[in-house]
Amino acid sequence: MLKTKVTELLGIKYPIFCGTMMNISYPSFTAKCSNSGALGILASVMYRKPEPLRQALNELFNLTNNPFAVNVNLFPMLKPIKQIDLVKVMIEEGVKIIETSGHQAPEKYIPLFKKNDIIWIHKCAGVRYAKKAASLGADIVEVVGWENGGSVGLFDIGTLVLTPATVDALNIPVVAGGGISDGRGVVAALALGAEAALIGTRLLTTQECPIHDKLKQALLNATIYDTTLVMRSLGAAHRVWNNQVAKKVLELESSKIDQMEIFDIAAGSKSKLMYEQGDLTAGIVSCGQGVGLIHNIPTVKELIDQIMKEATDIVQNLFKS
Ligand SMILES: Cc1cc2nc3c(=O)[nH]c(=O)nc-3n(C[C@H](O)[C@H](O)[C@H](O)COP(=O)(O)O)c2cc1C
Fold first, then answer.
1. Cα 46 to ligand 1 centroid, rounded to whole Å
2. Which residue lies with its CA nearest to atom 30 of ligand 1?
3. Which of 30, 55, 179, 320 could form a disulfide with 147 if both were Cys (CB 3.0 to 4.6 A apart)?
């Protein structure tokens, strides 16, 4: 059993966070993650309005008795939503752990978090942002390196360097993500000083992940070379699976076309089509370099058990010849 400050603080069995994934981290998937002993994180942005979110939270509370977090999305949106109303619903419904992620620190929500004893986790992609979140009262900071599936920030620093640099700069627990797909990655994150590992891409190829089988198969066949960074020129660099649409986005970026056209092609609604219908050229899908380390499609529980078995075996056998 690998107990850390984060497993103790959150009351989770394993030092693993299942990364928020838009159009994937619904109550059923989040509950599978939490029930496996990791921390599931619901993506609140999918619900957009208070009442649908309230329903989703009720569903989630019915599906798991284990701790889970709810993500507040602070990334710029084509159609912005009233986040504060969503945060109020989370508090009313008894959510205990809130994760924020995005291009800004959530200064205006912090008094609400503190007043209601929320454990506040902030996810970012740089030491500077991690320090800011810690100075504002974050309980835990997640940092994601350049290998990460989805938003990678501006600095191109890999997980191997970003994690210890953040640990050194902060007095609160750090969780490391970006490229972690197996027990080796979890042990590496802990060895770098993180108190848990954040895993996203690896979860895409699990049986319960609500994406089309065709996409799961495509990701299973992908190698470590099959991701690319799009929308960097727009200040919104994202690591995605390098399909035809990703290539098209890169082409449009270099031709300095109207950025709204690019945002339209890269929209979450197009990824949702890919997930639901298996049309692999409908849009882009966030995907980290760790996709190249995936070799099977287990259940979430089998995956988390397998990762933790591998991690504990490594720790027990380290330096034994
Ligand atoms: C398909 C997909 C969708 C994601 N959507 C979000 C999101 O909506 N919000 C967010 O903060 N992070 C999102 N992420 C990032 C993950 O929460 C997590 O930080 C990341 O996947 C960890 O790195 P890894 O993919 O290398 O394991 C997404 C990642 C993937 C792969």
1. 14
2. 286
3. 179
Which one-letter amino acid corresponds to residue 34? S
Q: Which residues line ligand 1 (CB under 6 A)?
A: 19-22, 43, 71, 73, 101, 123, 144, 147-150, 177-180, 198-202, 285-288, 290
Q: Is 117 exposed, middle or buried (0-12, 13-18, 19+ CB in 10 A)?
A: exposed
CA–centroid distance, 20 to ligand 1, in Å, is 6
Question: Which domains does the chain possess?
Answer: 5-209+296-317 (3.20.20.70), 213-289 (no CATH)
Q: Residue 189 is which amino acid? A: A
Q: For the chain, 321 residues long, give each residue's pLDDT as a single digit of tens.
A: 689 999 999 999 999 999 999 999 999 999 999 999 999 999 999 999 999 999 999 999 999 999 999 999 999 887 889 999 999 999 999 999 999 999 888 899 999 999 999 999 999 999 999 999 999 999 999 999 999 999 998 899 999 999 999 999 999 999 999 999 999 999 999 999 999 999 999 999 999 999 999 999 999 999 999 999 999 998 899 999 999 999 999 999 998 778 888 888 888 889 999 999 999 999 999 999 999 999 999 999 999 999 999 999 999 998 886
Tell me the whole-structure pTM to 2 decimals. Answer: 0.97
Q: Which of ligand 1's atoms lies nearest the C-alpha of 102? A: 11
